[in-house]
Amino acid sequence: IDYEESEKYCKSDVVKPYIQCEYAHAMGNSEGGFKEYWDLIRKYPKYQGGYIWDFVDQGIRDKSPVTGKEIFTYGGDYGRYPASDYNFNCNGIIAPDRRLNPHAYEIQYYHQNVWIKDLDAVNGAFKVYNENFFKNIDDLNLTATVYANGVKLATVEIPETKGIAPQATKLIKSDELKYAVAEAESKHAKEEIVLNFAFASDGTQPLVDKGQVMARQQFIISDYQFTKPAVPAVAAAPTKKGKVQETSSMEVEETNSYVKVSAQRMSVTIGKKTGMIDYLDVDGEPMLKFRESMT
Q: Mind listing the UniProt keywords for this protein, alphabetically (predicted)?
């Protein structure tokens, strides 16, 4: 059920709680829509969550016939038409050897129970919201780290998070954080400056390692400055196939059906109807092969 139908149920007069079965599918590069579901879950008390399909990739430990290295295989690795569902069972939050898949971090983020709100970085002020229903966050140690273009500049320890009760919010002011942000903006004014908050376990809770990050957030203090590409000059007259814009390194050909961008040996053709790449050619040879329609 999509977001709209989920919200419609939450707004209805139905008193039963809303719990979804397989509302998120952890296959491949997935969980891109996880945030939208959890925005609704946090908005409506009736919406109590859902089940992710599924927990672990069901791959088979084997060796690559190409590299000889250990890999986790599936049906497609054993012939073109094996009696299998190909990679369909590789749809877990974690890999077969229990390593976290990339989308596990997306799930972890929206499942966390501590949040930074109303950040005023210039004054080193922010609010900490303890979203837990039954415990404080005294077992977590908060740090704030300032980066410029990915290089760590300073890490500030913030001990004032102790004593925040369940479902409570506390305003915190840190002069050390205020100074660290000001220093970054002064010395790295033209760089991307980010502020990363991390709540790490102190090791007193069972099954949780000391230093394990239980909640995290990132804030952009200064945006990355992108280099502006040169704008192609418009040709004096259109070609037979349409308008042509060109520079010494790039040529743009546009018709009613497509836009074709060429640079050196490669060209990319994008269909206007779909906005998708229709053709990718290198040295005039097509690199994409499309399946012919069945008749």
A: Glycosidase, Hydrolase
For residue 184, give the 3-state DSSP assignment: helix
* Gap between the Cα atoms of 139 and 49, Å rounded: 26
Local structure of residue 137 (DSSP, 8 states): S
SS3 48: strand
pTM over the 0.70 mark: yes
User: Dmax over Cα atoms in the chain, in whole Å?
Assistant: 74
Read off the pLDDT band of 293 (50, 70, 90).
Answer: very low
Residues 6+ apart with CB under 8 A from 207: none
Beta-bridge partners for 263: 266
Strands (E), 174-276: 193-201, 213-222, 233-234, 243-246, 251-254, 258-263, 266-271
Give me the sign of the Cα torsion angle 154, 160, 165, 171: negative
Distance (Å, rounded) from C-alpha 4 to C-alpha 110? Answer: 19
- The CATH number of domain 3-109 is 3.20.20.80: yes
C-alpha 274: how far from chain center: 25
Residue 74 CA, distance from chain mean position: 26
Beta-sheet strands, E only, within 86-238: 114-120, 125-130, 140-148, 151-158, 169-173, 193-201, 213-222, 233-234
Mean pLDDT of the chain: 88
Q: Residue 16 half-sphere exposure, CB side, CA atoms within 13 Å?
A: 4
Question: Cβ contacts of residue 17 below 8 Å, gap of 6+?
Answer: 46, 47, 48
Q: What is the CATH number of domain 113-222?
A: 2.60.40.10
Distance, C-alpha 13 to centroid of its chain: 35
Taking only the tens place, the pLDDT of each residue in 88-135 is 788 899 999 999 999 999 999 999 999 999 999 999 999 999 999 999
The C-alpha atoms of residue 94 and residue 67 are separated, in whole angstroms, by 24
